[in-house]
Amino acid sequence: METREFNIQGIRILEILDEDLILNGPQDLLDIVSDYSIKRIVFRKEQITGDFFDLSTGLAGEILQKASNYKLYIGIVGDFENLESKSLRDFIWESNQTRQIVFKKTVKEVLRAFVK
Hints:
Layout: E1 3-8, E2 11-16, H1 26-36, E3 40-44, H2 59-69, E4 73-77, H3 86-98, E5 101-104, H4 107-115
Parallel strand pairs: 2-3, 3-4, 4-5
Antiparallel strand pairs: 1-2
């Protein structure tokens, strides 16, 4: 898997660069965490299954629960400004407040959120 690692103020952050990787569920997340011994991970929006963004599937909640249980931080990079789903917009807003899972336009913004 193609990755890039950042070390900012002693905090290790892994960016997933592999365009073929798709995060399909909580186990995929735990596999990455285990393989890289990392607590903060950055994904591109396109690297996450569409079911995550359909809140009725419950997948976003499952992944958020795993992140909470294992004290993981997940950054998702993409354009989230023109979403039609109010519930998804609300979920993104609430997630950004907790900083457990953050949705930002750029990797740089995610990195800033992780080291605040």
